[in-house]
Design brief:
Helix content: 40-55%
Number of domains: 3
Bound molecules: flavin-adenine dinucleotide, ligand DLZ, iron/sulfur cluster
CATH superfamily of the largest domain: DNA Cyclobutane Dipyrimidine Photolyase, subunit A, domain 3
CATH topology of the largest domain: DNA Cyclobutane Dipyrimidine Photolyase, subunit A, domain 3
Order of helices and strands: EEHHEHEHEHHEEHHHHHHHHHHHHHHH
Structural class: mainly alpha
Strand content: 5-15%
Strand order of the largest sheet: 3-2-1-4-5
């Protein structure tokens, strides 16, 4: 009899630890303090993971499998994965522990040590729910000077024959971003996101979260996430039917009061195993072939899953554990309090933080060009920024969060993932959103108390990091502009930035 441990983000029947499972084996799932509090996850994230785990356990039982499920409130809950594995091994006559490699390096190191602690052999299997294995990514990366996502993505398109026309890309181009990224149009009628009604299991979990995690970040209600595979598939189908068509056009657009836009809202389901990446890609590609969505939208969406998602995972496992400590720009400022409260005069930040708090979700451009851009310009310490992103989003696991934060937004890896920092002034946010119209600050004013802070912080960031960034060929143009500025202008930028940082650090409302 084998003991098979299933973690909260391994909720698929195709998880490798279930391969070859027999009805006499024991499947162990446990809600443990260790995983629920290693960062103080958003309340909605915990409710989502626990409810999805409980539904998955029920599904396994209905299929006739033997499941030992340890709830958070179980008086004998040891609080740790190892404690629960030891207990199960002691209670049942298991002769082997089978696990799928976990998605986070912290747990992988722990699992490696279990071999010494446990009385039975530990068999650790690869997590093959991804489209590029860790070894294949390492092989692709080997010997390359630059690890650019675009080239990786093209190989993945070829490998899986996605949107291909013989040997070349359908339509003649690999990437249709030139047609995407439109600013928000007036009067867009953005469809509602998928909403599931909380059933009894979810309601039980919600009251547990309210009782046991009262001091965690975020709003628990309303709770409408899918918690079963059928519901997650319904959410995917709804996206394909109602939003995929305009996914490309408005991928980078932000509208006040519209947190969901034309995005898919499926990352949380993909990352915990309720959806499989290839089925999402295939359904999107089928929508293109039947004329239900244009190529720019479908290619853009597929690139996120077949390209970015696989690529960041590859980078994570290629560079861990060192990647956790990277800080190329020596950023050292503390995360300001308003990242938790949303209490800031910068309307774009207030909107994105408030929506994050309400939904455990923000779309990519909010994460990258508002919240991330501020963290970069302000020089916030990577540890604090990483912790924030890891706990506030329902889709966050370190393998995907860390490269996006340290690589994509903070340039803390010195350019491994992004060829230049994604730094932008207020004019970008003004162009891509309607946030600025309701802001105390003015995006067109460059200095002084009414100026948009992103404007002077942008130049202050370049000046502060001159030694590290001037040599970057993609930054030359911006440094030339900085060099052309008068001494008075440069002084004004420095004074405004100092005033802003002093007020921020004193916890005044900035
Ligand atoms: P869509 O915009 O509809 O995209 C479709 C899918 O593509 C997503 O569901 C996701 O699986 C994948 N995808 C898109 N962009 C990326 C990317 N950059 N990296 C990996 N996968 C991507 N994504 C996470 O899944 N977990 C995270 O913890 C996470 N943290 C992020 C932190 C920062 C600072 C940034 C800039 C991005 C982060 N992302 C993360 C990537 C991306 O923002 C989210 O995947 C996306 O917003 C999820 O919403 P969606 O499902 O509506 O995505
Ligand atoms: C995210 C999460 C949470 C909140 N709780 C649990 C849990 O109680 N039990 C469990 O097995 N998994 C949980 N998870 C998911 C794990 O944190 C995830 O498996 C690891 O971070 C590896 O990616
Ligand atoms: Fe954000 Fe600046 Fe626009 Fe205000 S003016 S919403 S701070 S970009």
């Amino acid at each position: 009899m084998k003991l098979r441990l299933i973690l909260g983000d391994q909720l698929s029947l195709s998880t490798s630890s279930l391969s070859g499972v027999s009805k006499s084996d024991l499947i162990l799932m446990c809600e443990v303090r260790q995983e629920a509090t290693y960062v103080k996850h958003h309340k909605k994230k915990i409710a989502f993971v626990f409810s999805a785990m409980r539904h998955f356990a029920d599904d396994l039982r209905q299929r006739g499998f033997n499941v030992r499920y340890v709830t958070y409130d179980d008086p004998n809950n040891s609080g740790s994965l190892l404690g629960e594995v030891e207990k199960a091994l002691c209670l049942y006559q298991c002769n082997e522990l089978v696990v799928t490699k976990p998605g986070e390096q912290r747990l992988l190191s722990e699992f490696h040590a279990w071999g010494d602690d446990l009385p039975v052999p530990v068999v650790m299997r690869e997590d093959d729910r991804f489209l590029c294995s860790i070894d294949d990514f390492a092989q692709w990366a080997d010997g390359r000077k630059q690890l650019r996502m675009e080239y990786f993505y093209r190989e993945m398109r070829r490998k899986y024959s996605v949107l291909m026309d013989a040997d070349g890309p359908i339509g003649g181009q690999w990437n249709y971003d030139a047609e995407n990224r439109k600013p928000p149009a007036n009067g867009l009628d953005v469809p509602e996101t998928y909403k599931a009604e909380p059933d009894e299991i979810t309601q039980d979990v919600m009251s547990l979260v309210e009782r046991r995690f009262p001091d965690h970040f975020g709003d628990l209600v309303p709770f409408h996430f899918a918690v079963t595979r059928d519901q997650a598939l319904a959410a995917l189908d709804e996206f394909i039917a109602r939003r995929l068509r305009l996914f490309g056009d408005y991928q980078d657009a932000m509208i006040q009061g519209e947190p969901w836009m034309y995005h898919s809202h499926i990352a949380l389901y993909l990352n915990c195993g309720l959806l499989d990446p290839l089925e999402c890609i295939e359904r999107a590609e089928a929508a293109f072939h039947r004329g239900a969505a244009p190529l720019n939208a479908v290619e853009g969406f597929i690139r996120q899953i077949l390209g970015w998602r696989e690529y960041v995972r590859g980078i994570y496992w290629l560079k861990m554990p060192e990647y956790r400590a990277v800080n190329f720009l020596n950023a050292d400022r503390a995360l300001p309090e308003f990242y938790w409260s949303g209490d800031t005069q910068m309307n774009c930040m207030r909107q994105c933080i408030t929506e994050t708090k309400q939904n455990a979700y923000a779309h990519h451009i909010q994460r990258l060009m508002v919240l991330g851009n501020f963290a970069l310009l302000a020089g916030l310490h990577p540890d604090e920024v990483n912790e924030w992103y890891l706990l506030v989003y329902a889709d966050a696991y370190e393998w995907v969060e860390l490269p996006n934060v340290s690589g994509m937004i903070l340039f803390a890896d010195g350019g491994l993932l992004a060829s230049k920092p994604y730094a932008a002034s207020g004019s970008y946010i003004n162009k891509m959103s309607n946030y600025c119209g309701s802001c105390k600050y003015k995006p067109t004013v460059k200095n002084g108390p009414t100026a948009c802070p992103f404007n002077y912080l942008y130049w202050d960031f370049l000046a502060r990091n001159d030694g590290k960034l001037r040599g970057n060929p993609r930054m030359g143009f911006m440094y030339k502009s900085l060099d052309r500025m008068s001494d008075e202008k440069r002084q004004a930028i420095q004074d405004d930035s100092r005033r802003f940082f002093n007020a921020m650090q004193a916890n005044e409302k900035v």
